[in-house]
Amino acid sequence: MRIMTFNVLCAGRNEHQWCRRQPLVRDVIKKYMPDFFGIQEAHYGWMKYLSGQLKDYYAYVGVGKDDGANGGEFSPVFYRKDKYKVTRRLDFWLSETPDKPSLGWDSAENRTCSGALFENAETGDSVAVFNTHLDHIGDVAQHKGAELILEKLKKYDKIKTVLMGDFNVTPDSEIYKIFINGGFCDARTIAENSDNINSFHLFGGASKMIDFVFVKNVKNVSRVITVTDMPDGKYPSDHYPVVAEIK
Length: 247
Fold this sequence. Notes:
The protein has five helices and 13 strands. By secondary structure, it is an alpha+beta fold. The protein has one domain (2-246): Deoxyribonuclease I, Chain A (4-Layer Sandwich), CATH 3.60.10. A seven-stranded mixed beta sheet has the order 3-4-2-1-13-12-10. Strand 1 (2-7), helix 1 (18-32) and strand 2 form a beta-alpha-beta unit. It is globular.
């Protein structure tokens, strides 16, 4: 099972405008053809483009963060519709009122977590897959948001669970430790093979690792890589996607 998390950068500027980068993002996804991929900073234009370009292979779950429909950025989970079916979906806001569009604590903007319980069409096995984007400003929002995610995902404690996204924190942070202490493993740290390439690169500027694939009830991860592909010599985004391969 191949998982990809990819912050596609909502708008961008000048040569990095989102409309110029659309085919680059699409081509990277098609090259790796993950079973599941989660994108962040995906406004409705991104969603229309990618769901249209990949409609032969993928469907998605997720909602816009501003209205629970198409308004604002999505943090969706795309899934291979030939291999998996949705048996239970869940979207919630990282806030004190998680069941409706809302701003949480000291967050700079609305934040969501989206995903579903999926059934493998061939084996009948279940896997829960979720995608999120923690706030980049609010310390309280990061902390409380992480705790809320753990609380909401408790219902999946006995099955294989994947939580991916842009967490806006590094592995030495307290927020990262909340997920580890909550029973998740960073797939990179348990993988048989992994690289050490930072995921956030700011188009070749300062870099750090803030994009993760966390797993629970998963024993075997064959490899985790930071994908540095540059189709046509151009950056698809200011983040590299991270890919985890689970046995």
